[in-house]
Structures are given as C-alpha cells and as structure tokens.
Amino acid sequence: MVQRFADHLPVPRTIGIVGGLGPYAGYDLVRKIFRWTKAGRDQDHLPLMLHSFPGWIPERPAYLLGQTKENPGEDIGGIMAQLARDGATVIGMPCNTAHSPRILNVALERQHQTGLDVTFVSIIESAVKHVRELCPNGGRIGLMGTVATLQTRLYQDALEKAGLEPVLPDDDECALVQRAISDPEFGVKAFSDPVSSKARQILLDTARRLVEKKHVSVILLGCTEIPVAVTESSLWDTPVVDATSVLARELIRASCPERLKDPSTL
Amino acid sequence: MVQRFADHLPVPRTIGIVGGLGPYAGYDLVRKIFRWTKAGRDQDHLPLMLHSFPGWIPERPAYLLGQTKENPGEDIGGIMAQLARDGATVIGMPCNTAHSPRILNVALERQHQTGLDVTFVSIIESAVKHVRELCPNGGRIGLMGTVATLQTRLYQDALEKAGLEPVLPDDDECALVQRAISDPEFGVKAFSDPVSSKARQILLDTARRLVEKKHVSVILLGCTEIPVAVTESSLWDTPVVDATSVLARELIRASCPERLKDPSTL
C-alpha cells in the first residue's frame, strides 16, 4: 500500500509509537500529534501506528532501582522491530524512564537487528533542546519525574550538557510526585480519565514550590503521566514544558515538516 | 513475545483498530477502550494496536454516493491484514460509513486471504444490540450520521430487523449534520480538538429537534465524528448512544470480558 492522496505534499514517513508505558501516555502522544498536524481533512493526517502492549513490558522503575532483573528493553525492542517491519521509519516512545540507556540501548540494539533504517526520536533530547530554546542564556529548570528517572540523572545530565541548571523538588516531594503517578489508590496510572484531584493537587503543589521557593525559570514535566494531569502551558507565570507535546512536534518534523503547525496558531 | 504479566487473569486477545477514518475517531476509540478497562496499573490494560493511515484510504462517502470508483475496502482490508499478521485476533473499525457492505465485504475478504482467524466486531451490530437493550419493547430511535450512512440504510435496516423504528432528521438537517462532520471551515474532521462551537451547535440542535418534534426515545450517534463533539450521555432527558463507546465495550468483551468495567462505575 502507498500514500496516494494529498499529492500536493511530500510523502510523509510513517510514525511508530511504542505505547503501553503507560497506555494513557501513548494515547496522549497520539492526540498531540493530531493536534500539531496541519490538516483540513482525514487524508492530510500523518500515517501513524500505536502499539500498546503493557502486559509485555516489565516495570521500568523496578528494573532501574534494582528490584527486578528483567530488562524491559528486550520487549520494548521487540515492539520497535515490529513497528519497523510494518513500515515505521520514525519511532517515538512516550516514557521518559524507558529512555535510560540501560533500557534504551538494549531496545535499539534489538531494533537494529532488523536491518531496517529507522530514526528514533528521543523524548529527552527533544525536551532539553526545546528548554534550551526557551532559555538561550541558561536558567534554572525545575524538573518533575519518577524517582527512577531522577535517580538515573537522565534529564540532569542532558540539561547540564546544554548549559542549564536542573533543580529538583525536595526528596519528600519527589516521593509524593511518584505516588501521584503510580499510587494504585489515586495515581495517574490508575486514574487517568478523569485524573484524581489528589494526584493533580500534589503535582500542582510541587510545581508551585519549584517556582516560589526555588525560583525556577521553566517547569519541565519529565514523566509522560504528568501532562495527563497537568495540562496548563504556564503556571504562576512560569512556562511549563510538556515533554510529550515536544516529542509530538519532533515526530511530525521527522515525518513531514511541512505539516507541522506553527505554535502560535494553537 | 507473550503476555507474561497479570497472571491472575486470562490472557487477553490483542485488539486491532483500523484508524484513520477519521484519525480522531481512532483516538476516541482507544480512549474509550482504556476508560472501560478495569486497570490499576499499566500491565492490566489490554494489548492494542491502532493503525491510522488516512492517506491510504479513499473517501468512503464519495465512493458510496457514486462520485468515485475506487473502493476503499481494498486498503481497509490491507490494514486489517497487517493488524492480523501482527497478532490482532479482534478487530474493530471506528467508522460507520465504512461498514457499508459494499466496502466492508471487500475489506473482510482481503483479510480472510491471510488465513488468520480474526473476530471482526461490527460497530453497527454492537450499537443496535445496545439500543435494543435500552428499548426492549421497541421504540423510536433518532439517528444521526453522514448522508452516505443514511442513504445506504445501514442503521435503518439493522434497527428495523431488531424491531425498532429509525427516525431521521429532516433532509435539510441531515445536510447540516454532514457539514458539521466534514465542512473544511468548521467540521469535526477539520477542527477536532477543540471542536468548533458551530459544529457542536448544529449537532445539538438536530438532537433537540429529534426529541422535541419527533419524540424519539433514544438518540443514536451513528457517525464516529459526532461523539468527538457531543460527549453527553443524555440530552433533554433522552439517552444518547455513542456507537464508538459501545464498540469499545464490545471489543473489550471479545478480548477479555473479565476486564470490562461495570457501566455503573463510570
């Protein structure tokens, strides 16, 4: 099958999304890709596949924190390979924690074994590049994410390399953010649609303290569950960077840059 | 790869979704599957693939109304075959118009040629079965859909066979509903997130007249773009049946009935 319509535009590359980490983050990325695409009719939208197999993929934080031995990268790589065989040439994964090199390198290696040429668009690199554009002269970047993402220093290292200063919530607040994400009683993973008011309040309180007590210039939502609960683009006069939304734009740019909406039109 | 987690539950069958008809309807179905699934953590969600290739698939209404010769069923069947080869054993398609036998039979025939055993869950049969449960003694069912869906009598025939009386908006209102769906200036296909107030108002006005002037017992949203704009489950004390939501529940039932949420918990 071929892309036979929208002949006035270049043929877009097919986007493959590794979903299921968690499921709502995959759906949130699809939504944001659609939202950022210039389209007046069905056929103008980009070719896209979402493969959401949450039951295949072991817990990422448990592996990174040494609580389990099974590397989730094996199954993530299997899904990437499946997407590539189905024709995806641009792949994204809406899960920051799974971008830890200990997981991602295993996954990419498995995908490379297919011999198919695929561009992997990193959510970490995309988000840090975007933050750098917001703060061309450097700045204090308030970072919210899972305990595992913070402990592996995924974002801290990338921000520092870009000349930015990562600023974390206090330890007890980080533990609360983790619960807002994964607590079975009120966390976003268990209650996504709608999100519980308790989870949202914890996330907003943490953002507020980053602004008021730690004087950050940007709040970076470095876990794809957080923007499911916090949809504001600005809080207390401070820009909020949603890494999922930035990934959506970078995937469109890699697929067919002509179809990326101007941010000012949203 | 295998489903290795959630060992306390039966292994679910993988759900394949033919998306892109339009793209937002595919995303809306994914959202409703997640919403209707009993899940406290990522691994409890069902395995699911969304293949959204809008550029591959010719316009369905144009074919059914004789304006083009190319049967979209060929490419739809190609996507079904791809989903089946990737392991989907339950397939759904969130587009009522594409369920017209002239399109669907060609698509299913192409999928059957794979030799893979797949259950196709019809949105039309699912919705009519649900309406029948709401109206066990028969009733007048107000039907909103595309002009092509109405002209091919997809829902009318199925409703009558179930002992229900289909009631359509007046012709000029049907033409307005079509514009609310596909007008490039304000229709849901062009403006989905958010929907334009003009499209939503046309759809609500049509529903109101079905209730007030034609005294229907149920409003059936027989086009998957409509529930993107009209999210109410009841209007003017009349139940609104969203065929996408009913399809989501039937797909979960076909995949793993133990994980279907009780409607009263939503």
3D architecture notes:
The structure is a homodimer of 266-residue chains. Chain A is 42% helix and 13% strand. In chain A, helix 1 packs across helix 11 (243-255) and helix 3 packs parallel to helix 4. In chain A, strands 6-5-7-9-8 form a five-stranded mixed β-sheet, sandwiched between helices. A four-stranded parallel β-sheet of chain A has the order 2-1-3-4, sandwiched between helices. The first copy, chain A, is globular. Chain A is an alpha/beta fold and 266 residues long. The first copy, chain A, starts with 14 loop residues before the first strand and ends in an 11-residue tail after the last helix. Chain A folds into two domains: 15-122 and 247-265, Rossmann fold, CATH 3.40.50.1860; 123-243, Rossmann fold (3-Layer(aba) Sandwich), CATH 3.40.50. In chain A, strand 3, helix 4 and strand 4 form a beta-alpha-beta unit.
**% residues in beta strands of chain A:** 5-15%
**SS content category of chain A:** alpha/beta
Task: Count all strands of chain A and give the number.
Answer: 9
Number of domains of chain A: 2
- Quote the average pLDDT of chain A: 93
Walk across the major sheet of chain A and give the strand order. Answer: 6-5-7-9-8
**Quaternary structure type:** homodimer
Second-tier CATH architecture of the largest domain in chain A: 3-Layer(aba) Sandwich
Number of helices of chain A: 11
**Portion of residues within helices of chain A:** 40-55%
The sequence of SSEs of chain A as H and E is EHEHHEHEHEHHEHHEHEEH
The span between the termini of chain A is: 33 Å
- The third-level CATH topology of the largest domain in chain A is Rossmann fold
- Under CATH at level 1, the class of the largest domain in chain A stands as Alpha Beta
Give the overall shape of chain A, derived from the CA principal axes.
Answer: globular
Q: How would a textbook summarize the main sheet of chain A?
A: 5 strands, mixed
